[in-house]
Amino acid sequence: MKEKLRNTLLLFASLVLVPGICLAEGAPAFDTGDTAWMLVSSALVLLMLPGLALFYGGMVRAKNVLSTFMHSFVAMGIVGVQWVVIGYSLAFGADAGGGMIGDFSKVMLNGLISFTDGTPVYTIFQNVANEGGIPEYVFAMYQCMFAMITVALISGAVAERIKFSAWCLFVLLWTTLVYDPLAHWVWMVDGWLFKKGALDFAGGTVVHLSSGISALVVLFFLGKRHGFPTDRMAPHSLPLTMLGVGLLWFGWYGFNAGSAVVGINSVHAAGGLAGLALTTTTVAPAAAGLSWMVAEWIHRGKPSALGFGSGVVAGLVVITPAAGFVQPGAALIMGLLAGLVCYGGILLKAKFKYDDSLDAFGVHGIGGTFGALVTGVFATVGATGLLSGNLDQFITQVIAVAAAGAYAVIVTLVIAFALHKTIGLRVEKEDEIMGLDQTQHSESAYNGL
What we know:
Layout: H1 2-25, H2 32-59, H3 65-92, H4 136-158, H5 164-187, H6 192-196, H7 204-222, H8 238-257, H9 272-300, H10 305-319, H11 328-352, H12 360-378, H13 391-421, H14 429-434, H15 436-441
Helix pairs in contact: 2-3, 2-4, 2-8, 3-4, 3-5, 4-5, 4-7, 5-7, 5-13, 7-12, 7-13, 8-9, 8-10, 9-10, 9-11, 10-11, 10-12, 11-12, 12-13
């Protein structure tokens, strides 16, 4: 009996005490607080995908709800695999030349730093080349969520008429050929726009401008929905859309405040810069929701729930490139302007007669462009903008916007043309009339109706 008790105590000690001793001798040098915050931020950004699915899904007709949801969810699957296999290496691998794209050194996430024996740690960016920082696995997964949400944004323009097979191929090709190189240009220390001094805290050019302008390009090949603009195509469930707005805003705190990990003057991912980004990410969308609502109230005579929600998203888009570079007062002004600018952006549909189903270009393309430019005007934290007398920064922002926009347009043209000429981008007219839920997925969102 005594021997059995002794063996039990020895087993307990081996399970509890020995691992503690091993950790003490070879403990990781990473900052546990920063790592914890980045784990949370990664999960918050992933939550934006279901949020986007709700936001877009509520705005389409009932016969296309599941199809629209699938556009966001399948992006999680395709990009989740692509990023591990090659995407992360192309975006954040060692520069392959000219600051244009990464090499293949991190294919399959090979060679990432996850633990250290106490020697200096280099994860990705020069500001974390110290004994703090976070495991590169965490950073890689955080950036994976960015890649997922970016291509999913494009689905808002093509909803209710694109083939699901074409969408799947588009997600893979666009992420590899457009998003990954742009991420390298702007966020890698060897990227040519990074070295030029372009400011993009969390994705004004890389995420929103690129996706919004690419959405407009795809529409050129896809054409208008059957019956547009004469038939009524009202949102089937605005409560779903408004719930999506709330989840997007919630997740956006990980998107912007989490990006403090790559801030120019950031020492910690979970520090003062993250607090500033969280604050500006609260102020700007609040102001934008109100300014859009007022503009719509004056223009159309009634304020709408969809208008306020769209304004909130517009404010989130516009503050994204500036979140850690501007003070709260500047964020308030940017938000007020964002609501007005993006409300004007969606009115372009009626003028130019293109069918951007859920206003991906009007909110993300125009909002991302505007946000990137005014970052060069209002920046005062870690950089100075036009209002601080730095004209060069504003010019750099113009160059970054022009370069990212032109690249996205050209490569998306090639991708869309190739898909259009091979498997085809659009479903048959009869399938579109019946609804993509049935014709593409053999399902119905509301079987009880």
